[in-house]
Design a protein that fits this description.
The chain is mostly helical and 276 residues long. Helix content is 70%, strand content 5%. The protein has one domain (2-272). Helix 7 packs antiparallel against helix 8 and helix 8 packs antiparallel against helix 9. The longest helix is centred in the last third of the chain and has 28 residues, at 209-236.
């Protein structure tokens, strides 16, 4: 019970800060996203590299921040889109730096530097495409709706998984995450769809209701995969949590693992259909 209370209070605090930053203005949004991205990359490197090649880790995080910043400038200040390609320059610097690393006994770990860019920095940078309704016009409503769907899906998965899935039904991916169950999956899916419908009829998601339902379904499915992917990393490196910054939850990566796949899939759905 004590752990549930701590988890709930921490979760509510995280949600409150996230909502405030997203809805305030584009600068608070940018600070929030780059902060979350940097912390998640630090947690990922702490889990996979454990203090090795620290300077290269810093270069990788810098590359992620530059990627987000250029995308932010492109969407928020009509920065020339062709110059966003400059985000690759810090990655080249990181590659060149690897040549000057003297101790190459664990050089294979350098792959984790690039993995974090693809796994964390790219999805966080993509949020700029839904945070601005038009170039230069910030509106965090759609991004907040995406987060609500992810959060409701996570809550549904947790509640149904703990109350039903642990006693009845089959496990989802027992070799990766023994606690994940099909009951939790279906519970999360139902609540995600319900959230999408409610957001539509309350005027927050301004798309036809069937688009909102498809969005919720896609984001729930890929959110579950995102959760499982992080569980696989933690299982391989024998780590319980990615960090300790959020009591009752673990790290920021533990809290946003599902969003790292769910948000990009939702964004791609709207962009491919040209309805964003």
């Amino acid at each position: 019970m004590k752990n549930l209370i701590i988890r709930t209070l921490t979760g509510l605090g995280f949600v409150a800060v996230t909502v405030a930053c997203i809805m305030w203005n584009k600068y608070s949004f940018a600070v929030l996203m780059t902060g979350l991205m940097a912390v998640m990359m630090i947690e990922f490197y702490r889990m996979t590299m454990r203090g090795e090649y620290v300077f290269s880790q810093v270069l990788s995080i810098l590359a992620g921040v530059v990627m987000f910043s250029l995308t932010f400038l492109y969407r928020g200040f009509d920065f020339p889109g062709r110059l966003v390609i400059l985000a690759i320059v810090p990655v080249f610097v990181m590659m060149i730096n690897s040549l000057y690393v003297k101790d190459k006994t664990d050089f294979g770990k350098f792959a984790n530097l690039y993995t974090a860019l693809l796994y964390i920095a790219v999805p966080m940078s993509m949020t700029n495409f839904i945070a601005f309704s038009h170039p230069g016009q910030y509106d965090g409503t759609l991004l907040l709706c995406f987060f609500v769907i992810v959060w409701v899906s996570d809550i549904g998965g947790y509640l149904f998984g703990m109350t039903i899935g642990q006693k009845y039904g089959k496990k989802l991916f027992p070799e990766v995450s023994p606690k994940k169950s099909w009951a939790g999956f279906w519970g999360g899916l139902c609540l995600a769809v319900a959230a999408g419908i409610v957001l539509h009829y309350t005027g927050f998601l301004k798309y036809p209701v069937w688009h909102c339902i498809i969005l919720a379904v896609l984001m729930n499915i890929f959110g579950v995969y995102g959760d499982l992917i992080e569980s696989q990393w933690k299982r391989y490196y024998a780590v319980k949590d990615s960090g300790t910054i959020m009591p009752g939850h673990g790290g920021i990566l533990d809290r946003l693992d599902s969003a790292l796949l769910a948000l990009p899939v939702g964004i791609m759905y709207l962009m491919v259909l040209n309805i964003l």
